[in-house]
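Changelog excerpt

This revision adds worked examples to the README so contributors can see how folded entries look when concatenated. The first example is reproduced verbatim below.
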Amino acid sequence: MPEGGDQPQPRQHAGRLGDLTAQYPVPNHPGVPPSQTAGRVSKLYAVFTVCSLPAKGKAVISGLHHYALEVPDLSVAEGFLQDFGLETGEKDGSLVAMCPGRQQEQVRLVEAPAKRLHHVTFTLRPGTNDAVREALERSGTPVIEPPPGATEDGLWLRDPDGTAVQLLDEPQAPARPAAEVLVNMGGTRQRFDVAQWRTATEDVLPRRLGHSLLFTAQPARMTDFYTQVLGLRVSDTIHHDLVTFLNAGPGDHHIFGFISSTHRGFHHASFEVPSIDAIAVGADRMRAKGHQTGWGLGRHTIGSNFFHYNPDPWGSWIEWFSDIDQIDDCWVAGDWDVPPHLWGTPPPETFLANSEPTPTKE
């Protein structure tokens, strides 16, 4: 895990992500290579090369296990999550949801008067539990009792925003197997004598929870905590600390992150589906069931994944994604002045609205 000086230090910025859509429109230059439109790149963090950093004895998260929300109506929540493509059930008085074919809780919902983030849960890499405890002790972060409605498994603590965080000393459950997607694009020719349309929609349901982004009023402090104490790494940022993406080492470009806001809250969770066809079919399914129109189809800039977001019944978002960038220990974090989407319609005005109640001081 890098020392403090090795991490890019986010800075406060008064802008809003929606401003970037107008300030930095995505140009349409057919045939122009990316090198000729590189003026939109603010800078690169050349210091964040982690290839040679020793991993031994460091507290390292392996992935996002699940997220939990308080919501006012579990029956509404169950119908919405089933329409999205998840399997639901009851556990310890809470509603839980899983991806078909994956034996791992991905969502936990606790009934309460108003929607708010309840907790987030991560899994640890094998053999790092003692290192995590040492890191928590060095940082002065106490281990706490689980919040009501949560399990007692693993370690519990609170991040600088006061959100309960659960750390499980167990591996991630394998995602449902998916067929290889053969493509005939660019210079690649993989599919011969196969009519792709006949099988493109056979497997369209979510395979795994990939990442979640939270609202925060203190992105620099939150980034420092999750990197220096819990061992995540900065993948990229948009406009300094307007949006921060964090990774857990080799694998997905990001598993967690923050969006600057007036107060803490839950912005979205994102689930991987097998293909871009699965995203489109899912969007059609949600529209057919009467749900509000979301945002997509599009391709993100940071992470490069195809996406479609659905507004949930409580003012936050849930996303399908496919084709996200994969990184290794040599990834170099960048600070980018770009809109959130490479192509597609602009995000709706409500996309960055933090609908959670402002926390009261305890």
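The second example, added in the same revision:
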Amino acid sequence: MNTVAFPGLGLEFHVSSIAFRLFGWPIHWYGVIIAAGFILAVVYCSRRAPKFGIRQDDILDMLLAAVPLCIIGARLYYIIFYLDLYRRPDGSLDFGAMVRIWDGGLAIYGGVIMAVIVLLVFCKLRHIKFLAFGDLGAYGMLIGQMVGRWGNFVNVEAYGGPTDLPWRMGIYDYVDGTLQYMEVHPTFLYESLWNLLGFLLLAWVAKRGRKFDGQIFLGYFAWYGVGRGIIEGLRTDSLYFFNTPIRVSQVFGFVTAAVAIVLLIYLLAFKKHDPARLWVNQMKARPRLVALVYPEGEGSVWLEKQKKRLERDFARTEEYALPKDADPGERQELIAALRGREDLAEVLVKEEKTK
């Protein structure tokens, strides 16, 4: 049980790193919070997907590869620059400690780098415009990071140096082997709030209308990079370039932000953009055609459900209501004929209820 206080605000919390136990196995708050952020990000992106020309099924398919690989990327990034934490007293590497991610130790930039790589490959294979998908994914990243930072609060980590500001955070931690009370910058809170502001800002930009695919993607790197670079300078647990005083995430944040800002200025101020080139408008201009076959009088609920789903996927539909007394042979002939049409991308059939 950890005690975390905000003395200037008159608040004190007693937090445990374990949320509950499942069949005797401890379920940590860190993992629960990360999972909550992930679910919120997926739900939001799934709802917003049609605005970017992305199909919901593509989001789910992409996540099957992205989730495990991004966790691995975030962990590897952390281990590479904090390798001494995973050494035994004899100098050998403790691989068991390396896989215990519930104890903390996921570097966000490692996950971001892996996410970009996975998305590039996925979009190449599915023939989807990477920057359009990247625009949508930027919101997911901000939501996940905004919520996920509270996992650091529960683990009492990712805090800053000493401060006497009104919102200072009081914690107990070991200094030179001795448990001491200290009042520090709540940098986890700074970053969570910074991501919330970034999310609201980029949502407002999208509502006004994106000028080009990649605008939100670049906006994410510009906003997050500046904030992370500044906040990283306050932290006491930064990852360093091996034995140098250079903070990895601070440099990465400022460099990516500078590149993104330069590109945004050029693309917004000096280049004209045709709305027809937006991926969402390209998808609307060439929708798929799907045939819906259903028993007359039975398929109304099914039909509406399919039409709504297909509309989100930028598809047009043709409907074929089969009479109740239709001959099974004629039914199969119709379905076979529809499936033989080159202009139809798919034929969906609702089976007749059996009595």
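Reviewer comment on example two: Residues 2-276 form one domain. The chain has two domains: 2-276, 287-349.
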